[in-house]
Amino acid sequence: MGRRRSGRGADVVSAPTGDQPPDACPAGGAADVEIDVQTIAGTWPDDLVAATVRAARFALAGRLPARQGGWELAVTLADDRHLWRLNRYHRGRDRPTNVLSFPQLADPAGPAATAGRIAAAARAGAPLPQPLGDLALADGVIAREAAAGGLAPDAHLSHLVIHGVLHLLGYDHAGQEEALPMEATERELLARLGFADPDRRPAGAPSPPEAAPAGVPGRDRQDPDSDDRHDQRAWRDP
């Protein structure tokens, strides 16, 4: 599949969305957000593409101000090989990972500082959407983690998408003080999506995603010589 762009406020899925629950796009949700999904490798059924978009919309709901030109989130659905290369290039970790986040506006100081950057971008307004950043996901790692933990694939994928989007909004979990609010927000969003608390997972379930600053600022996220194994944040220059 190639690139599929959403119209503003529309989900990017190739399957019909009429069978989604009424709260699939929360009221007052992400303000005028265009979600750009590109499948470049791996196996990504339509239901998982739809789950990706839905989780991203829930994670962004109510967290962005109105902006002339709107906002954009880019999502790359790929295979383990692609995430392996990205993880190696941006983080120096020679293994595949489940999800990588590439923030455009996130401030290392945290969500409050990031909200300030987002507010400034909203005031600046422009005819074109303002990128929030990018996510890249690996089908094989995610499928194996879900199977090993007895998790539904869409539940585990939704957790990772939410986790990745929260990194774009400045959340982190390098220390307990940072981790607690991020994990609480993840639990809240997953519950609204109808999924169980990931911290109350059965024996054998994969651990929550571990993330760390990952990138070399300014490097292209799709460089062919890049790779990792659990969600990471790759910083880019804003």
Summarize it.
Helices cover 36% and strands 14% of the residues. It has six helices and six strands. It is α/β, with parallel strands linked by helices.
The ordered string of helix (H) and strand (E) elements is: EEHEHEHEHHHE
Task: Provide the CATH architecture.
Answer: 3-Layer(aba) Sandwich
In terms of DSSP E residues, the strand content is: 5-15%
How far apart lie the N and C ends? 30 Å
Number of helices: 6
Stretches where pLDDT is under 50 for at least 5 consecutive residues are 1-30, 210-238
- Please provide the count of β strands: 6
CATH topology: Collagenase (Catalytic Domain)
- What order do the strands of the largest sheet run in, or round the barrel if closed? 1-2-3-5-4-6
Q: Please tell me what the overall shape is.
A: globular
How many domain modules?
1
Mean pLDDT: 79
Structural class: alpha/beta
**Share in helix:** 25-40%
Largest sheet, in brief, is: 6 strands, mixed
Say which CATH homologous superfamily is assigned.
Metalloproteases ("zincins"), catalytic domain
Q: What is the CATH class?
A: Alpha Beta
Q: Using only CA atoms, what is the Rg?
A: 16 Å
Task: State the main characteristics.
single chain; 238 residues; alpha/beta; Collagenase (Catalytic Domain); 6-stranded mixed sheet; 6 helices; 6 strands; 14% strand; disordered N terminus
Explain this structure to me?
- This protein is α/β, with parallel strands linked by helices and 238 residues long.
- It has one domain (3-10, 20-233): Metalloproteases ("zincins"), catalytic domain (Collagenase (Catalytic Domain), 3-Layer(aba) Sandwich).
- 36% of the residues lie in helices and 14% in strands.
- It contains six helices and six strands, in the order ββαβαβαβαααβ.
- A six-stranded mixed β-sheet has the order 1-2-3-5-4-6, sandwiched between helices.
- α1 (46-60) packs parallel to α5 and α4 (139-149) packs across α5.
- The relative contact order is 0.19.
